[in-house]
Amino acid sequence: MMTTAEVATVIHDLLAAAMDGDADRTGALLTDLAVDSDASRMFNVCTVFAEAGHRALLYMYGDRAPNLPAGDQWIIEQLRPGALDNDPVQAFATRFLIAHCNGDQASTKTQYETALIAGPEVFVGGVCRLVTDVAGLANAALKAQENRG
Q1: Tens of pLDDT, residues 23-62
Q2: φ, ψ for residue 103, nearest 5 deg
Q3: I need a surface site. Which of 13, 59, 82, 129 has the fewest CB within 10 A?
Q4: Phi, psi of 110 (to 5 degrees)
Q5: Confidence class of residue 72 from pLDDT cuts 50, 70 and 90?
């Protein structure tokens, strides 16, 4: 099993590959990580990606970000209500990220367990989508930083 430091390096490289749009390298690194991990470690890996997404959102929203101590929450706004219900892969990625952003550890864990129980298609697809979504958020945050000059 990889050491914590090795996992951290793989996560870093994986996010960088995803941000660069290198699907082959992203897939290979995610596969290496998944094969070396048990369910508990993969939960932690997903949490690290969700935290990267949360940081990107905080950067982009700045002082408009939800104030969690004041009772505000991150929410999902759907252009087509119920669309996530028909896409369990995207539902996992989105709901896991939002639960993490809100500091709702119970919901974060429930989302993870639900995807895990749903089977490999939903679980693997959901983790891949989470990585892709977070890479998109990180790229958007970098673009926002460039635009701010």
Answers
A1: 999 999 999 999 999 999 999 999 999 999 999 999 999 9
A2: 70, 20
A3: 82
A4: -65, -45
A5: very high
Query: Can you tell me whether residue 81 is helix, strand or coil?
Result: coil
pTM: 0.94
CB 137 within 8 A of CB 94: no
* CA 17 – CA 138 distance, rounded (Å): 12
Rounded Cα–Cα distance for residues 56 and 98 (Å) = 13
The Cα–Cα gap between 75 and 95 comes to 9
What's the average model confidence in pLDDT over 58-72?
A: 95
Q: 56 is written with which tokens?
A: 């990107």
Band of pLDDT at residue 111, cut at 50, 70 and 90? very high
Which residues make Cβ contacts (< 8 Å) with residue 134, sequence separation at least 6? 15, 18, 49, 50, 52, 53, 56, 97
Collapsing DSSP to helix, strand or coil, 65 comes out as coil
